[in-house]
Amino acid sequence: MPERRMDWWPVAAWEMRRMLTRADFVISVLLMPLLVLGAGLATRLIVERSNAKPLRIAVAEAQPSGALVPVAPPPLARVVWAAPGGDTLTRAGLAAAVRARALEGAVILPGPLAAADSADVVVRRARPAWEAEVLGHLSAVGRRARAADAGLDSAALARLDARLAAREQVVTPGGRVSRADRATALALMLLTLATVFTIGAYMGIGITGEKQARSTEVILSAVSAQSWMDGKIAGYTAIGVLQVVLWAASAAVIALFLSFPLSANASPALLAASLSLFVAGLCLYAALYGTIYATIKDLQSSSSFQAYLFFIPFLPLMFMEGVMRSPDAGWVVALSHVPFFAPFLLPMRMTLGAVAPWEVPLALALCAAAAWLLRGVAGHAMRIGMLMYGKDVSLPELARWARER
Amino acid sequence: MTALPLLSVRDIVKSFGGARAVDGLSFEVRRGEVFGFLGPNGAGKTTTLRALLGIIRPDAGEIRFEGSAVLDRRRVGYLPEERGLLEDAVILDALVYLGTLRGLSRRAAAAAAAEWLERVGLSAHARKKLNTLSKGNQQKVQFAGAVLHRPALAVLDEPFSGLDPLNQELFSRLIRELGAQGTGVLLSAHHLNLAERLCDRFLLIAHGREALAGTLDEIRRAAAGGAGEVLELDLRAEGAPDGAVAHVVAALASHARGAPRAEARADGRVRVEAALPAGADLAPLLRALNGGLRVERVHMRALSLHEIYVRSVGGADAAAVEVADA
């Protein structure tokens, strides 16, 4: 039966209007940036306070008798060399002081620093952040003492210690990745993931809610199942785009407010490509959720087969670290063109600067084509399955539906 | 030249798994008529309605709307048997949505929704949510949603469900008005007394097939082997010899279509009913009423739609049981 042109539009407009007037949606969209801002400010405050607090660390040298004597190495930033005495100046005393947080840690040398080739380090928890820096500092002091004993002056020692001064020439576009690039890539991925899940949840409420209220039958007497599903997909995609634009804008403002540098690769082209991929990807995921919800009465009645489909958006998370490490590796390039993964992985790779010009149009075309096909499947599942009240669908039944005209 | 029917259904078949829900059904609905589509539960009514609304596709057969195989959904209105309301939506918004789905602009849909809420007496509830209304008022909103776009064909599946007698009268009047305005109304209802008053023609189905079709007079003549009228006798049996009533029933049985029924009333009278062929000679029957029985009332009436329904789709045994309930 031929479709009327644009008869999906009233459905899409209804869904958009309904969502935008829902208090929980408005609150969640507005609250999220405030939560992120709050978390960012809190983290920054904690880090700053932590950085401002000096670390009290004791260094002691063991005598042949076993007794300890305090050592005062040259100054080191953020470290105050403690000079314990009395009962504290024993192995047990130092351990007690560290346990009681009177000291951040203690380093016990087996002899004079110049001769020491090992050290006992007393810490509350293994491998604290300061340990490598303090040991490196003490090693350097010992090395200088040994050099002086060998008759070398500081200039000769500096020549001996001189490291190769490298001038790095990066020959691939994505070869230089900054902390800001990584953070921006991660933020893009999390924004996409959060939006996909939010929209999935709202679609679930929208579709299964109408099925349970039995209003689907009235609506499907007015528009075809395909138009109804197209309207849902379009409406929720628009909601998702609005949500992500608001969140992304908020994130940019928060980053500026917190003086957090944005990726140098962030550009209008990256934004346009990311948004295009996001729209195609959200259509694809909305169609996936539409297919799932068309076959179930409510979320509780979904089978394990349907539950597996819900996990598809999680899969790109598994590849996130690999993408961060090697954004231009062959398998990463291939995966970032798979329609379900492209909206997550390709913007990440673009932020990391590792995308060839042909990749975005190709991934976009594949994603859009997959979304178009899947929205047809969703419409078909809706038409065949809309009369299924209070009954779970099995995999063989799904296969039978696909064959029905 | 014969006017093109509004809706023409020819030999449609629909099966679910191995069960044939609709088995070669054919009928027509004309402009401006109220067409009664009746049948027992599970007869295939809802499946047929869903097929002609384009919700499901028949396995075989042809459905033409205004002569075309393409259904123009904007010209059809549908009130389903089970309530299909967006319960958490504001009433006016829900009606506007339904109107826009049927091709109205938002402005036109809002005006039509307001007009229909006024007609069904719910203007004061326009900004309330649907789930705050009573069952009957929800049905009124559903009715408004089905017809606010002035459809050419209104498919009403159990519109009287959940309505009190006053609102049944309101709906009857609204349905008549729809017909008078040229809308073809396909009415499926178990409220047969209302259907009898409202419908111009009827189709009774059973097991997915046609059982009876035509005007009330036509189906009355065709029902139960030509029984067209019912004889009602109120007898006083006090002081009569034992078996006097049984004697009367036996005498009627030889003339009646189906088994006559005798029912003792609380006031001591016995009501005897028997379906007779149209124009039956009552003299030999009345002669059988001797034997000490006192005849307090003799009444001939036409077979009701209820009786026709029970006889045609429920079998003669059911008819004997149900005939007094009309």
UniProtKB/TrEMBL annotation, chain A:
It is found in: Membrane. One of its GO terms (molecular function) is ABC-type transporter activity. Keywords: Membrane, Transmembrane, Transmembrane helix. This is ABC transporter permease. It comes from the Bacteria. The keyword Membrane applies. The chain crosses the membrane at residues 25-47, 185-205, 233-258, 270-293, 305-323, 330-348, 360-378. It comes from Eiseniibacteriota bacterium. InterPro entries: ABC2_TM (IPR013525). It is a multi-pass membrane protein. It holds the Pfam family ABC2_membrane_3. The keyword Transmembrane applies. Residues 188-373 form the ABC-2 type transporter transmembrane domain. GO terms for cellular component: membrane.
